[in-house]
Design goal:
Elements lengths: L1 H19 L1 H4 L2 E7 L7 E7 L2 E8 L2 E6 L13 E3 L2 E3 L6 E3 L15 E7 L2 E6 L4
Length: 130
């Protein structure tokens, strides 16, 4: 009987793990632009898997976060970049480009996405919509 309970628990744990990480399993890197397309300390918005992603080039690294400011929906790609942060062009809400944290309240975050460079392609990993 003990074995049956352990097996049932393992099955439940496995299902919960799959549910929690389903979006990560269904993610792929997508090429969004060529290296050098985005000038230093600026961003550019790209549609990836049905959502808008802001890709920034800061301190020689590409980084990506959700493009829409949660306050009023402005495109963060058009914001002012300074010291690793981007300020929303509409109301100056500031977000850390490295992880999407809102600078005025670190408990609030927007999505941040993994970025890699392969050859001359800048690639972003964004969960696919179901």
């Amino acid at each position: 009987m003990r074995h049956a309970r352990h097996t049932a628990w393992s099955l439940v744990a496995c299902c919960r793990w799959r549910q929690a990480f389903h979006g990560l399993v269904m993610s792929d890197f997508v090429a969004v632009c060529k290296v050098g397309t985005i000038p230093e300390n600026t961003g550019q918005a790209f549609a990836v898997h049905g959502r808008m992603v802001a890709v920034f080039y800061v301190d020689g690294k590409y980084q990506a976060i959700d493009d829409f400011c949660p306050h009023m929906g402005a495109s963060l790609a058009g914001g002012i970049v300074d010291h690793g942060m981007v300020a929303c062009p509409w109301h100056a809400w500031r977000f850390k480009i490295c992880d999407g944290t809102w600078c005025d309240n670190p408990r609030i975050k927007i999505d941040a996405f993994e970025v890699k460079v392969e050859g001359d392609d800048v690639m972003v990993c964004v969960p696919k919509k179901e």
